[in-house]
Design a protein that fits this description.
The protein is an alpha/beta fold. Helix content is 48%, strand content 13%. The protein contains twelve helices and five strands. α1 crosses α4. The longest helix is centred in the middle third of the chain and has 21 residues. The two termini are 27 Å apart. It holds the Pfam family DUF4240.
Length: 275
């Protein structure tokens, strides 16, 4: 499964009067399980998780004094801690609104997540049959309510000089960047993402499309990664002169998807398990 959600409930009242009702906690737990089920059945999530074995795990914590919320990247997985005030759900009556609020909160987190990373996951989740019927009968979707700021932590990009040294030493999948441990590989791909963003102009895309025809988002991403794989000098040339990209695609093996195409592999570089 490409996405999993862990929902934890911390009772700051230690079971005394005034704490979140057990019914609310049970509804949140049950709705989280439904989110997991739907994500496992949804084609969009299946495609996303199947790409380089991506995974997104979100923990939702309820407490009286919530700490900061954050998303962090670790190897090929994203982890989120969403810390909410217990009263965030207690203001709602027990019923479909509890599940609708949880789904809206998760969707809001996914939206932040999708803006922060290059490998965007789906940003919407299904509503249950009961929730849809309740809304159709005139029920009001409470939305996510007031969410705390969500901090996104990513690995710092590898220094530029070190990055290009590795690219120049990478001639196949047994050399150069492919020898990096995973923590350094994460820094390498963080720098890679910044470099391909600088090639994402309308002029560059037009020249690529003129020789390739229709460009899907994945193909366009891989084309730009292939430019980076050709080294710093060629990358800077293409960045400054978009027309060169069309010529490269027609004449260079790096764009044919064959054994000389290292672009996609570098873009999703996993690194080794050693530190």
């Amino acid at each position: 499964m490409g996405v999993s959600f862990r929902v934890h409930h911390s009772d700051p009242y230690q079971g005394k009067d005034g704490g979140p009702p057990k019914e609310i906690s049970r509804l949140i737990q049950a709705r989280a399980a439904t989110i997991n089920q739907h994500a496992g059945e949804d084609e969009g999530w299946a495609v996303w998780s199947g790409r380089r074995n991506r995974r997104f795990q979100l923990g939702v914590f309820l407490s009286g004094k919530p700490g900061p919320s954050s998303l962090s990247f670790d190897h090929d997985s994203w982890y989120g801690d969403l810390n909410l005030d217990a009263d965030h759900f207690c203001e709602l009556p027990v019923g479909p609104q509890i599940g609708l609020r949880l789904v809206a909160i998760v969707e809001a987190v996914l939206e932040v997540f999708s803006r922060a990373v290059g490998d965007d996951p789906p940003t919407s989740l299904r509503r249950t049959k009961r929730e849809l019927e309740w809304l159709a009968d005139g029920g009001t979707d409470p939305g996510p309510g007031t969410l705390p700021p969500l901090r996104v932590r990513r690995p710092s990009p590898m220094p530029v000089e070190r990055f290009w040294e590795l690219v120049s030493a990478t001639v196949d999948e047994r050399t150069g960047a492919f020898l990096l441990p995973w923590k350094e590989a994460d820094k390498f791909t963080a720098r890679m993402r910044l470099l391909i963003e600088d090639l994402d102009s309308a002029d560059h895309a037009a020249h690529a499309e003129s020789v390739m025809g229709y460009l899907s988002a994945d193909v366009w991403e891989n084309v730009r990664a292939s430019v980076v794989s050709l080294g710093r000098e060629m990358y800077e040339h293409v960045r400054a002169t978009p027309a060169v990209l069309g010529e490269l695609i027609m004449t260079t093996e790096a764009f044919d998807g064959g054994e000389h195409d290292l672009g996609e592999a570098l873009l999703y570089l996993e690194g080794s398990d050693s530190d």
